[in-house]
Design goal:
26% helix; alpha+beta; five-stranded mixed sheet
């Protein structure tokens, strides 16, 4: 997936270990960080100041549900863009509380 696009997973891991979150088990990997929905994550947002969890990568069965259940704190939105093919891929935003309820059957 990465090499086909000329990218390196190690670069993303390094970035997310420094500036985001790496959730990992033997069968799941998820990279996420806080962003501002106002600029689609173009600028760095310090912890607690973003309104969105941006999921860079989610690999493994039920990985998004697993992430939603483990996030350090809720935000207004959770967002991701599928694939690497388009550098201009539109980020899709989902209401965090509604997605949490849909995936877990619980309210926050």
């Amino acid at each position: 997936m990465y090499s086909a696009e000329g990218l390196k997973l190690s670069d993303d891991l390094e970035y997310y270990l420094k500036f985001g979150y790496v959730f990992c088990t033997p069968d799941k990997l998820l990279l996420a960080r806080e962003i501002s929905s106002h600029d689609d994550g173009a600028s760095y947002v310090p912890y607690g100041q973003g309104d969105t969890w941006f999921v860079k990568m989610a690999v493994g069965k039920d990985c998004i549900k697993w992430f939603i259940e483990q996030t350090p704190s809720s935000r207004k939105w959770v967002a991701w863009a599928r694939g690497f093919k388009s550098k201009d891929a539109k980020i899709k935003y989902y209401d965090f509380d509604k997605l949490y309820l849909r995936l877990t059957g619980k309210t926050i």
